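User: Modeling request: complex.
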Amino acid sequence: MFLKEEYITRREKLKKLMTHGLIIFFGNEESSINFKDNHYPFRQDSTFLYFFGLNEPGLIATIDLDTNDEIIFGDNLSIDDIVFTGPVESIEEQAHNVGVSQISPSLGINGYVAEAIAKGKQIHFISPYRPDHVLKLASILNVSTTEVRDKESVELIKAIVKLRSIKSSEEIKEIEKAVNTTVNMQYKAMEMATEGLTEANLYGAVQDVALANGNSTSFPTIMTINGQILHNHYRGNTLKKGDMVLCDCGAETYSCYAGDLTRTFPVDTKFTHKQKEIYDIVYDSYITAVNLLKPGQLFKNIHLASCKKITEGLMALGIMKGDVDKAVELGAHTVFFQCGLGHMLGLDVHDMENLGEQYVGYTDTLKQSTAFGFKSLRLGKVLEEGMVLTVEPGIYFIPELIALRKSENMYMEFIDYEVLEHYKDFGGIRIEDDFLITKDGYRKLGNRLPTTSNEIEEFRKHKVRF
Amino acid sequence: MFLKEEYITRREKLKKLMTHGLIIFFGNEESSINFKDNHYPFRQDSTFLYFFGLNEPGLIATIDLDTNDEIIFGDNLSIDDIVFTGPVESIEEQAHNVGVSQISPSLGINGYVAEAIAKGKQIHFISPYRPDHVLKLASILNVSTTEVRDKESVELIKAIVKLRSIKSSEEIKEIEKAVNTTVNMQYKAMEMATEGLTEANLYGAVQDVALANGNSTSFPTIMTINGQILHNHYRGNTLKKGDMVLCDCGAETYSCYAGDLTRTFPVDTKFTHKQKEIYDIVYDSYITAVNLLKPGQLFKNIHLASCKKITEGLMALGIMKGDVDKAVELGAHTVFFQCGLGHMLGLDVHDMENLGEQYVGYTDTLKQSTAFGFKSLRLGKVLEEGMVLTVEPGIYFIPELIALRKSENMYMEFIDYEVLEHYKDFGGIRIEDDFLITKDGYRKLGNRLPTTSNEIEEFRKHKVRF
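Assistant: Request completed. Predicted assembly structure:
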């Protein structure tokens, strides 16, 4: 948690960006696994954390833009609870810690909002991503559960995005802490990987590093010898010579800031010749993108520059052919690079994704594409100083996708499906790092990790950390 | 997953226990952490797993008791999904694997149920513990979200409890696998613990063992130097000489069966004299309870026998006083042992808790008490061959509870609050093992772990596993 003053300042800035009405912020509830009282690790809503900092379940906060009233709604624990949870600060103390002086029992929220509605106040809230919030909102607003999502406040969303997009120095410190734990997670996997271990063995060890040094992971770790499956969560395979391991993982600090890094490395101490060729294309694409990072650049253009590098590289290998610019314009590269170059990073690993990518990564005039390969580009807009984002190009040979595109006779002008046949079982490679946009360019966050194919091989041979 | 025949047999048994109507089984959905597509590790609903075995999100199954129709509702993945998830078996193949021949797209469920309602069929379902199921049920049954819970089928619940309470030999093998991984988690913590490490360090290492050998943990691991907090999830404390560590953890196998064990051990190689005295009382209570395990015994009586042992022991130390039987009858021991002796174990760590403890642990004539210290006794009824359950007595010195009871002048006849003053900061001790009820008694599940205070000290000194 930051100092009380930080939260007060954030709320003041929010109020200045908005006009009238009552804002409701829903803190998260516990989330049940297989019965009510068996809970997944609690994760507070990030916007609630940003403005109110409190990391306990079951809280709601309101800001009345007209009267300036700020209230935290929540219930103190009974002795029956305390036996299980231990002593917890009272709601009053918790509210005081973040500069809020008014509190109310949870049940008060319905009457309070009803009164505001009766007075004709606009009610501002962000669209819920958890079903319990849909139920709560329907009850509080007295509308059906299907109507809830239509009533989100775009004014509120835009104000939150404006504030959360530019990270303060305290936030950057926290993100860098998360990245550094993530660096250690990556080192752990690269140190440990050896023939005969399973993906699950590496997965467990990497989770250990995250859990021993912070809250948790910022998303479920991807630890796979099938890197071509972008969000692969199976981990039953045994590592064998010739395989590559793709490890995409992120730590979450105690203050809930996220890291997000990917490395792909051979189970042997060296890549095969074929693996190294593809790896070096991905690295080329990565470094091209990184060198373009600076305020004023359109991230969509950086994405396209990295797509072109991938296309050029695959053309050099004979997998692709024809005109690079035209190939990328028509999306031929999406047979190999199906997703976006990167996304913002902060309290969420895809920062603010719940607020809507059209507001977070795009603008009123720059719309997100719905085309295959572009719809997963979560960030397209102009970069600004203080943004934190990932750069994560990759090349993925997905047998099902290749077969589909071939059967559709797609991209015949740009893809040599016969050459491609030799890569069908290749797998996938991704390189990902986290960057802060500075006044003149960028700063890569966190301690150094092996990144080029030579550095990776060097590390796999000698296991010496930078 | 078990053989297809196992699921067919289970469903046949269920049909025989019921009469008329349509049963709906809801498989679980993905559960969002901090934005829609960031998911907690998927956990299938246990009843769905028991009867249909499929471990993918978004499935619904129905059994029409009158026509014998069994249908699985679900949707095949598109290429956009497969890029992220890799190839997944079709719904048809999945259904075939568990002996179901009819399938339907997800959207079909609303019309199918509406038709059944129109025909006057009773609709059977179990009360949802996840809010997305409340939303779904309200939509399917065309009732308000607040009405959903009132409509659960007690006939269905009782039939499920009857079947799931008695474990098959295949299930027992899976539970024992979970217990054995849990044994290794316990060994890991006891091997590793040393002055200067944090609770989080041990927590991470224990998670590693669970994740490297199965699905996950069966509940969030409790790893704490404050064992008196029954479900403590804070893990920021540094271990120091004189502390005890309470580790309560359970592995979940890939087939989703649970283990659940607790050990309490000193950070030093030896307990202090005071710690050993309390430990030995808990062990006495544990072994008394274990020796009473056999078919025909009322578990509530075993709980009371263990409470009496605790009371006797605390009387010998001068913390309690007066008549043992009367003290337990009036609940004086609940100042030190606030929870139940044990619970059933299976696909859920508190097996079937979502079906309602009154149905799982009690009967129409034996009702669950609502008194403090008894309402957490999840199991009270007569033991039967094939049940699997935990035995987990403990002594917990909870400063807030002691202060409250003293201020209320409660149990003055049975508690010497002056002597108790010297134990206020003692902490808490629990010992927990998992047992199968056999024809003549019981079998302790899993490999051997140090259990007595001498065995624990021996292990902490020499770190030699049994």
